[in-house]
Amino acid sequence: MNVRLLGLGEVPPKLAEAVLAGLPRSFAGGEIGRLPVALENCYDRTRAQVDASCLIERIPDPEPGWSALGLTGVDLFMPALTYVFGISHLGGRRGIVSWFRLRAEEETAEAQARFTRRITTEVVHELGHGMGLVHCVVPDCAMHRSLWPEGVDLKRPEYCPACLATLASL
Amino acid sequence: MMTMPVRILVVDDEQHIRNSLAAWFREEGYEVGVAASGRDALAAIARDGTHILLVDIKMPGMDGLELQRKVHELAPDATIIIMTAYASVETAVQALKEGAYDYIVKPFDPEAVSRLVRKAAERYALLAENRALRERIASASPALITGGSPAMTKVIELVEQVAPTDTSVLITGESGTGKELVARLIHARSNRRFGPFVVENCGALAEGLLESELFGHERGAFTGAVGRHRGKVEMANEGTLFLDEIGDVPARVQVDLLRVLQEHEFKRVGGNETIKVDFRLVTATHRDLEAEVASGRFRDDFYFRINVFQIPLPPLRERPGDISALAEHFLTKFSTQMNRRISGFSPDAMAALVGYPWPGNVRELANAIERAVVLCHGEKIEAGHFPFVAPPGSSDHSLATIEEAHIRQVLAACSHNVAQAARELDIDRVTLYNKMKKFGIERP
Ligand SMILES: [Zn+2]
Ligand SMILES: [Zn+2]
């Protein structure tokens, strides 16, 4: 599986590169691109957030052997939910991740490294959903559900052996 | 793929809401159906059966309350969670009086809805003795490769014994013996296995940092704290908190930990809010804590609190029979990872492995095998691929010394059954007897 990281809005190139470089070895390769989207079309004024279920539909279907993942800095929500870190089409090889709520709580180099690792982990998570994986009970597996940014730190940007086996059988 | 028998039905007249909630729960691994009205919902329940219903209280036609009454007749065991807007909380309270499990206010906090549904689903998952999920946990949870030594069999027994209880466990042993693996195994075998497993290495951080890592901090608690940070204690709620190198925790932080263990609540650094927590504590240390207590470096009240049940891990040199099984395990693992075709160890290499005292224990063994796999370009790992084997000519690691050590280990592993040991060593019995005589090895 190859990965296409698509910037939705402004994405620091260094960040996208770091995320791509941090993906597990089970991915064959990847590339970085930009998708010109009008974020305001999915913007909810009363909530001052972007509707993730609207935004994900702007991502075109990837060709076979590829997963497409949108990367954005806007605050995402889903109807009925106050916020999400990201969403994806289960088995549809499309997803989005926002770093809005993953930002570091401190101004140190360690906190910045932690921030990059969080985004990478959530990218691996949504890519996993895109390939058909559901949440995993293994605490440090990327497919474990995290509801807090600090909870993302407990995971590794990798799939556990059970999830890898599931991926191989899909 | 994992199949969860728990079925959820989302009933809401707003298509946007029911579809996004359905997607959210499908990612969780649940089977999810949707219904646009009370009528549709009743049809779906009759057709597919349903364990958990999320019901919007305000719907045209049959409203949530009316649907709830009908569901009670049709499927009395189903759990109903009411979804409401702020304006209609009173109606939700009425639903609770009539037997709803709980209610949530739209838009939901992902954390709250996830917890609520997990709580409801756990009852079914546990009742149904969800085999698929159990097998997944078993296959994904860390395997303790024991090689079948009595010492490690005992460890496994202790883990099985203590895991289902909520007792605090102290794991002791030299570094590299696999203390974190044992902690993970305890969690995976416990009733908290669906909850988080949270690790903190207490030896790696300065006192102030450790406090903030454990208990979290509020914005502005110290210079550079630009946002709220949840600590490990808070994140371990409903799960297991594993504190490695507990012997390195400063006395002041010991007091804080003791307090949260006794009172099940704490405050973030720089915060006023009291936060309730419920976690199981597993700790580990390579130090002799009793000696630390005796010398006053470790608080005795804290020691008694964490040392309710102790699991000592034996060093690798005390269970030489496990070395070959572990070595084979790591060889398969690393050669698969690096895509190398290595069929096994040469006899010299295995003799070197078994004869080495392994001060760094299993971790050192894993590192040695990984390095050997990188260096090895033939079909078998040779003794020369190991960093601890001196080049030829050095008397300490002469072939004879290694051979003697290996024979002693294999004999010990075979309970001094010479026939069996000869088979293990791939030599005949007479040769083995001669070698035993040469090295002065006697049967006990
Ligand atoms: Zn997810
Ligand atoms: Zn997993």
Task: Summarize the SSE layout with pairings.
The complex is a heterodimer of chains A (170) and B (444).
Chain A (H helix, E strand, L loop, with lengths): L1 E6 L5 H9 L7 E6 L8 E2 L4 E3 H4 L10 E7 L3 E3 L2 E4 L1 E4 L4 E5 L10 H22 L18 H4 L8 H9 L1
Parallel strand pairs in A: 1-2, 1-5, 4-6, 5-9
Antiparallel strand pairs in A: 3-4, 6-7, 8-9
Chain B lengths: L6 E5 L3 H13 L3 E5 L2 H11 L3 E5 L7 H11 L4 E6 L4 H9 L4 E4 L4 H18 L3 H10 L9 H13 L6 E4 L6 H10 L8 E5 L5 H9 L16 H4 L4 E5 L6 H13 L1 E3 L6 E3 L3 E6 L3 H6 L5 H7 L2 E4 L10 H15 L6 E2 L1 H9 L5 H15 L4 E2 L17 H15 L4 H8 L3 H11 L5
Parallel strand pairs in B: 1-2, 1-3, 3-4, 4-5, 6-11, 6-12, 7-8, 8-11, 13-14
Antiparallel strand pairs in B: 9-10
Helix pairs in contact in B: 2-3, 14-16, 15-17, 17-18, 18-19
Instruction: Report the CATH C-level class of the largest domain in chain B.
Output: Alpha Beta
The number of strands of chain A is 9
Global geometry of chain A? globular
Largest sheet of chain A: 5 strands, mixed
Output the structural class of chain B: alpha/beta
Put simply, the count of helices of chain A is 5
Radius of gyration of chain A (CA) equals 15 Å
Low-confidence stretches of chain A at least 5 residues in length (pLDDT < 50)? none
Biggest interface pair, residues each?
Answer: A-B, 43 and 50 residues
* Uncertain runs of chain B: 127-131
Task: Quickly give the CATH architecture of the largest domain in chain B.
Answer: 3-Layer(aba) Sandwich
Mind telling me the CATH class of chain A? Alpha Beta
- Summing up helix and strand content along with how strands pair, one would put the structural category of chain A as alpha/beta
> Numbering strands along the chain, what is their spatial order in the largest sheet of chain A?
2-1-5-9-8
